[in-house]
Amino acid sequence: MPERIASYFEPAPDQMVQCHLCPHQCSIKIGKTGLCGVRRNRDGVLYTLNYGEITSLALDPVEKKPLYHFHPGSMIVSAGTVGCNMFCSFCQNYSISRHRPPTTAVEPGELAGIAREAAGQGSIGVAFTYNEPSIWYEFIWDTVQKLKENGLNTVLVTNGYLQLKPLQNLLPYIDAMNIDVKAFNEGFYRRRCMADLNHVKETVENAVGRTHVEITNLVIPGENDDLAEIGALAGWLAGLSPLIPLHISRYYPAYQMSTPPTPVATLEQAVLTAREHLQFVYAGNINGVADDTLCPHCGHCLITRQNYETRIVGITANCCSNCGTPTTFIHM
Q: In the 3-class helix/strand/coil scheme, how is the chain assigned residue by residue?
């Protein structure tokens, strides 16, 4: 597919360009790309190299994103491209974020058509996921317009590393986000991701209240598993809203990191610590732990989950069937 002129850049001296899409704000020489690998300076103009280029396309349970409070039990078309603007040494999708596998060219209207057809299989829209979607900005911008015209939902599964202006422009067209807060200390972000925490926090703070937000935190032994840090993350989120779902996920060795998997006991303690601040905390990447959604008022089970099989068992007319508390914290 032909390269497209990128959004959010300005010319610089000597035919360089400065990209303003993400906080790296790369200054890019002619013929070179930014750190994401998919935005190139061609004769003093910035082009996006991955417009419409898809590496992964699947129909997934929405809980797999993970989103537990957004149309539970539904399916969603999931699409990803190539590249990333972080450099996580534990990346689970490094084959597309760090490498350049074969791609299939798809126009925005085609992807919207795929999503429309998938509605017959219980799909609610499209999730931009697998690699970092924000560096696919131009394609996502064009596609979400088509999806909205067809009454379909739009989801970003993102690292949150996006400048404020492009984020604010995109948010009115996004129905839900899962934002990966990889740790709650700056040292981890600098050492393990080549990024910084404050910009991610700014994304979360601007998204909460404007779209449905859930947070993921991958707990890595010896890196970000300190319970005080988990408590600080949960406390900060609770200050935005105590109803934000937090997914505390189990790490497994991947890419450049060979540390053994997170002990189950560590994950359980992290969940208990976070629940001192937040109403809804779930353990991810492990079966049978903290998957059910309970009524925050009476503890009645509202939703059960087992291996992505979801059943709504305790909600009637958008209220807890036991005590009548409105379940407005779940988007049905």
A: CCCEECCCEEEEHHHEEEECCCCCCCEECCCCECCCCCEEEECCEEEECCCCEECEEEEEEHHHCCCCCECCCCEEEEEECCCCCCCCCCCCCHHHHCCCCCCEECCHHHHHHHHHHHHHHCEEEEEECCCCHHHHHHHHHHHHHHHHHCCCEEEEEECCCCCHHHHHHHHHHCCEEEEECCCCCHHHHHHHHCCCHHHHHHHHHHHECCEEEEEEEEECCCCCCCHHHHHHHHHHHHHHCCCCCEEEEECCCECCECCCCCCHHHHHHHHHHHCCCCCCEEEECCCCCCCCEECCCCCCEEEEEECCEEEECCEECCEECCCCCECCCCEC
